[in-house]
Design brief:
467 residues, alpha/beta, eleven-stranded mixed sheet, 11 strands, binds glutamine
């Protein structure tokens, strides 16, 4: 198969997914996709992702398409440069398939808060695909592309991966350059990867990872290479943190996790119950720190420099800012900016923002005490948890109840707060809806984590109903 026929097949599948009304795509042009394949076929390229079409969340800057962040405030904006992750994908032979739908500025857990309308779950159009990287997850789950990029500030790759029954990797903070990723919460943000299999996602992560002089937070490390492959899991210690298995956990999710744990044991791993006592602080801590950082990062969208400008009477710049920001930002983004400004304001800074920093440190220390390390030789190598407390929920169910929406992040946002790598792998179904299991690892231990994920993928039948 030539790159061009491969690209035409991808184009057909994207168009079929659009025709089904999944609304996973913000920008796509068949001609742009086929032209990339034609250009590759003129070279003697044989990159590690030669001819592989990758869908891109629309908060990552590309030259092929505008970058909207699913917000009206970026109407008419075109990035003058492309993200490092995009440049690396292209250098590896990959094709940029399209730009995908998301919650506006990646704020949300359902892909309902998009200026382009909500994205639908591929197995049940009444349900949400998760978010905020819902469009990327749907295109992979629907079979349109083998892999896609998303972004993670508080679970936005793992949670939609779990809802859609695919693999989602959130790398260690610093593993992947964020140059060209539109900033949301800078102490949390990281580009992540979706794949139909662990292998697909890992191959893409290998290409986009590694040091980048354009991003001062990128770690001074070589691109991730696949770890040694283990024939079994003997000698591996996997911790199950009790705070992630509350008594009111959805029984099917509990059953799927129990089954996965049993398979880990069968493969030679030892399983150890552990405690991460500050987990209950994670959602409130995240929802102080992420909005605080967002309120600062989003100050740049002022009607002067990017995208939308709402004309206003007179020459008062403050009136222009107000009119533009009032018209350009949707309700959830406005809520975050107000929340974030409040927790940073004089008089409340100590009460909220500083307290959240203390809680973040306690959450991080929980992991340091549980994982094996020089000071903790008896610690565990990895942790296993459910990715989400419920399967994909119905559209409209949480969209007017922000606190309920925020609780969808309960099992995913600690990894972002503690800068840890984590991966969600499909481990079963409940009434036909996918269930995800999460593996967490110490900083920069992605290679081992993905090896355990490959075992999990082989050991469980993800299409089997859990009861
Ligand atoms: N649900 C989280 C939020 O709304 C996750 C966001 C993300 O990871 N981009 O902030």
């Amino acid at each position: 198969m030539t790159a061009s026929t491969g690209a035409a097949a991808v184009a057909d599948r994207i168009e079929r997914s659009n025709a089904r009304g999944l609304n996973a795509v913000i920008a796509y042009d068949r001609g742009i996709l086929l032209a990339q394949a034609d250009a590759r076929s003129l070279t003697t390229g044989s990159g590690p992702l030669e001819g592989v079409a990758v869908a891109i969340k629309d908060n990552i800057c590309t030259l092929e398409y505008p970058t909207t962040c699913a917000s009206r405030i970026l109407d008419g904006y075109r990035s003058p440069y492309e993200a490092t992750a995009i440049a690396r994908l292209k250098a590896a032979g990959a094709l940029i398939a399209c730009k995908t739908n998301l919650d506006e500025f990646a704020m949300g857990a359902s892909t309902e808060y998009s200026a382009f309308g909500r994205t639908r779950h591929p197995l049940d159009p009444e349900r949400v695909p998760g978010g905020s990287s819902g469009g990327s997850a749907v295109l992979v789950a629907d079979g349109a592309v083998a892999a896609a990029l998303g972004s993670e500030t508080g679970g936005s790759v793992r949670q939609p991966a779990a809802f859609c029954g695919i693999v989602g990797i959130k790398p260690t903070y610093g593993r992947v350059s964020r140059y060209g990723l539109v900033a949301f919460g800078s102490s949390l943000d990281q580009i992540g990867v979706f794949g139909r299999t662990v292998d697909h996602a890992a191959r893409v992560l290998g290409v986009i990872s590694g040091r980048d002089g354009n991003d001062p937070t990128s770690a001074d490390l070589d691109p991730l290479s696949p770890g040694e492959s283990r024939t079994d899991l003997s000698g591996v210690v996997i911790g199950t943190p009790r705070e992630f298995f509350p008594p009111d956990l959805d029984p099917a999710i509990q059953a799927a996790c129990d089954r996965a744990v049993q398979r880990f044991r069968d493969a030679g791993a030892s399983i150890r119950p552990v405690s991460l006592p500050h987990t209950r602080l994670a959602v409130p801590t995240y929802y102080v720190i992420a909005p605080a950082e967002a309120s600062s990062n989003l100050a740049r969208f002022d009607g002067i420099r990017y995208g939308l400008r709402v004309s206003h009477p007179g020459a008062d710049p403050a009136a222009l800012y107000r009119a533009t920001r009032g018209a350009g930002f949707g309700p959830e983004v406005r809520r975050r900016i107000i929340l974030g400004t409040y927790v940073l304001s004089a008089g409340y800074y100590g009460k909220y923002y500083q307290k959240a920093q203390v809680a973040r440190r306690l959450i991080t220390q929980d992991y340091q005490q549980v994982f094996r390390g020089p000071a903790t030789p008896d610690g565990v190598d990895f942790l296993f948890t459910p990715t989400t407390p419920t399967p994909a929920f119905k559209a409209g169910e949480k969209v007017n109840d922000p606190v309920a929406m925020y609780h969808a992040d309960v099992f995913v946002c600690t990894a972002n707060l503690a800068h840890l790598p984590a991966v969600s792998v499909p481990i079963g179904r409940t009434s036909g809806l996918p269930i995800g299991g999460q593996i967490l690892a110490p900083h920069f231990e992605e290679a081992g984590m993905l090896e355990v994920a490959r075992h999990l993928e082989r050991l469980v039948d993800a299409t089997e109903e859990a009861r």
